[in-house]
Design brief:
The structure is a single chain. The protein is mostly helical. The protein folds into 2 domains: 13-56, no CATH class; 64-172, AhpD-like (Up-down Bundle). Helix content is 62%, strand content 0%. The protein has 9 helices and no strands. It has helices at 13-22, 33-38, 42-56, 64-77, 81-91, 99-107, 117-132, 137-146, 149-172. Helix 4 (64-77) runs antiparallel to helix 5 (81-91) and helix 4 (64-77) packs parallel to helix 7.
Length: 184
């Protein structure tokens, strides 16, 4: 059941401008349904975009492939097929990420041999934050050996951000984009 219906065109000039800021430059598809849900509250939408853009943009301190593993795992743990599918379809082949890794974000765990030791730490970080809203001292020590403090902070914020995105997508009841990947 759709609870928060994405707005449909024609868009007001203000909404059109907001939506275009959320979309990659030059893209030829309709703005994502999730963005069109956020458009119900333009003020909130305008305040959220800078953080989302920072996580996905050139200023991020996290390697893009590692970022996408984190995002996919968060979305999988939250049962958010919508956002998981958008990221798999949008970034998977672009970043040359093995599709089996994306599938494992839904069906596996950090101990699975598909993950490098560094990637396994990311999976465990997401799982610990998802399950406990906390990270053990042992895991923190391992993370701190791999990533610097600014990167660790960004990873924690990224996990929280995609929980928020998953909550909105799940509660709104929007259907997956037609071109997006689906959970295995």
């Amino acid at each position: 059941m759709t609870r928060l219906t994405p707005i449909d065109p024609p868009y007001s000039p203000e909404i059109h401008d907001h939506l275009m800021k959320w979309m990659p430059p030059g893209v030829k598809i309709e703005p994502l349904k999730l963005f069109r849900v956020f458009a119900h509250n333009p003020e909130l939408m305008s305040r959220m975009r800078p953080l989302g853009a920072a996580i996905l943009g050139k200023t991020s301190l996290i390697a893009p492939a590692e970022r996408e593993i984190v995002i996919a795992r968060v979305c999988a743990r939250c049962g958010c097929e919508y956002e998981w599918g958008v990221h798999v379809a949008s970034f998977g082949s672009q970043l040359d990420i093995d599709p089996a890794k994306f599938a494992n974000t839904v069906t596996g765990n950090a101990a699975d041999p598909i993950w490098s030791p560094r990637e396994a730490l990311l999976i465990q970080l997401v799982d610990d934050l998802h399950e406990n809203s906390q990270v053990s001292d042992a895991l923190w020590s391992q993370l701190a050996a791999e990533w610097e403090t600014p990167q660790l902070l960004e990873l924690i914020v990224m996990v929280g951000w995609y929980h928020l995105i998953a909550f909105v997508a799940n509660v709104s009841g929007i259907r997956p984009e037609e071109w997006a990947a689906r959970f295995p």
